[in-house]
Amino acid sequence: MISDLRSIKKQNDLTACKELHASVVSVSICASDHVCGGVSSLITHSITSTLRTRESMALPDFQTIMLPLLRRISDGRDWAMRDVTRGIEDEFGLTTEERSAMLPSGYSRVIVNRVGWAKSYMKEAGLIQSVRRGFVKITEDGQKVLVSPPDRIDMKFLEQFPSFLAFRSRSSSEGDQVVEPEESESLVETTPDEQIETAYSALQAALIAELLDQILEMSDRFFEKLVVELLVAMGYGGSIADAGRAVGKSGDGGIDGVIKEDKLGLDVIVLQAKRWTSNAVGRPDIQAFVGSMEAYRANKGVFITTSTFSAPAYEYVKQIQRKISLIDGKMLAELMIDNGVGVSTYRAIHLKRLDTDYFVE
Question: Looking at residue 182, what DSSP letter applies?
């Protein structure tokens, strides 16, 4: 299992996520004391591999959308972006599933995000203008492009327009890395939102692997302390002292006990945790755990392992009346990150966008 966990750094199933939904969005990247080592090469590899994986998707990239978008608004009238997006979906024959595909954050549909960026770049080139909130129209330069239209409008094509070159020059001078098409075709086919979140996902994957490696190197006593602090951070077990008294060693490298579900102790949760390195927790282990709950007249239980659970174990908990939560190594690390246990924030990036509500007279 440890080798599998360490290989997370090399996996290419990372996804992109939009975090520019609000006017100001804070992205906090957590890291253990030594997560930064080797991360630069990891990010580069993960981004490129992930974006290549997306090539199999039927959803068009934002550059492919540019020319169809310009043609769709070529009549010179004001167009609502929601109508433009719907027309793009129809033109590319997207299925219902493809149209409803969401960015991992759940804030926006993928196609809406890509149409938005296609519009933004052509606006910087002077081919499109915003007339009011949510509405665009073609410009005179945009009409000229369509007189003898190219096979494709992309970032390279837009470089013939001085306003777009000025825009890219401003971005470069402000310290942003401008990715040229010839340098990385896969990167330039994705929106800036997707590139940011792919890099963020790479960092998180590296952190998860590092957390699990670190946990397995620590003592049983430390593992007990970690579980107690995590449960209290999540709102269970009452105080650290209460949870600590309720949890004890199981004698096999793990811990077990009964903790309060809330600070008032109105209900209890039976806990078992195994700091295993390779063996998956199987159905017999879960059945024995469920049997032990009878002594406490408990209906809820949490089973934590640093390894994995077998498929029969997952199937078993679905079949019984008692509510059992199975937390494997990956989920354990994710919960630690979410609740600030064993990690610290070393960098915060604030991404801002125009607040159109402010500019209303």
Answer: T
